[in-house]
## 1
Amino acid sequence: MKIGIIGTGNMGRILTEAFLDGGAVSPASMTITNRTVAKANKIKETHQEITVVNNAREAANRSSLIFICVKPHDVYNVVQDILPFLSEDKCVVSITSPISVKQLESIVPCSAARAIPSITNRALSGVSLLSFGEQCSEQWKGELNKLFESISTPVFIEEAITRVSSDIVSCGPAFFSYLTQRFINAAVTETEIDNETATKLAGEMLIGLGELLKKGFYTLPTLQEKVCVKGGITGEGIKILESELGSVFEHLFQATHSKFDEDLVEVKKQYSLY
């Protein structure tokens, strides 16, 4: 299977390197391109058998599975550009949430899908979100599921929960990184611990927490119960979180969905059928 990656910005590069590190594909079977070709060449420095081309058309021509890793308002133009190279047996995959599979399917003559990755996939971990077009062949559904199994736990999602699923899986690492950094900063400000030590302790704590959940020793509620000894210190900290967090996470989802709705309005202007 020949894979093309159009756009090697943050997520395009993460996908490229994860697929290679996960052993899903060989460098020789991958063609990549970027508007700034230097970014694509940076990947080639460590994976010399990758083919770097100068434009999206050449990447599509050389590939049977084509990932479009560009901003939502650029997807339509990229597809129009590569249309002459999209035969019925190929598959085009968008990685951006505002572009629905129906919209993508309405403008391509081949199988279409959406795959929303997470930065955690770079560590061959976490979840990737998959959605398939109505005309997507069973062969491509299987190929995509197998491909993403090599770097993540692929989960099929319906259109109605695309945004919230992406908030949890794709945006979540940034949200919790921010919270962890604030946690570290407060520890350094309020106590005698230095930033380096606090950062190491917090990082290892998060890794350990992940392992506990992954191995099924605890759920989130039961973990809290185990740590929060009645009348203990952890319970006092939980009380502060309960009183001061308020509706912060409700507001977070309201904000992400509001921005998503704005993006949908802009994207719909490009697609006549939807």
## 2
Amino acid sequence: MIRVGVVGANGKMGKEVVNLVLNSKELELTLAVDKFGAGEIIGNTIIQPELESAIKHTNADIVVDFTQPSTIFENIKIYQKYKIKSVIGTTGLTNEEITEIEKISKENNTGIIIAPNFSIGAILMMQFSKMAAKYFSNAEIIEFHHNQKKDAPSGTSIKTAKLMMEANDNFKLGNCQETETIKGARGGDYSENGKGNIQIHSVRMPGFVASQEVIFGSDGQTLKIHHDTINRSCYMQGVELAIKYLYKNNKFIYGLENIL
């Protein structure tokens, strides 16, 4: 049995992970952390309110964390401090933080998987976008999420842009000089070292779970690659894959596509 801890156990994604673990014949819930609902019992596990204290005394092999962008970087450092492997689903980490986390992971010889998205369909959408990027001169991304998502743009849209930039370093060929009469009307310009130039537009609205559309254009044609998340249960296949992979491997991984 793989002993699993869930941090953010009372959150929307945390509850899905808890159900995954409780209903699996290969996983065992040995740790649950959340400041909301502390003292409640899920399975045979009491929800703990304070992360480091709980981590210090756990026997979990792997922790799954879907918490807040504002705390995830410090959470990861705690997992590394106690040499507990972690599957991270929270987005909002900067490039600099990801680089530092990779360094810490290698120094401690303690594996981490950070995935902006755990949906297999979303992973395929990103891979198809990378394939298409080679053949189109222009591209923009529109991502849609519920209005309780705190970070924008989404981690999935940023990961998609990074993959596209591996195939093409300028997606604004032929564009005229633009003037925004309303600031932000053209979304955010995602670039790295002056390359990429992909406009990302973030929509936040009740009724959405998560959707993304990548629009490619060239003379005389457009191509749209679209993925919809209908409910959060679709992420659990990817979470389970990540847990089982990390149990057998001790690597730093950014992006679920690297273990499929």
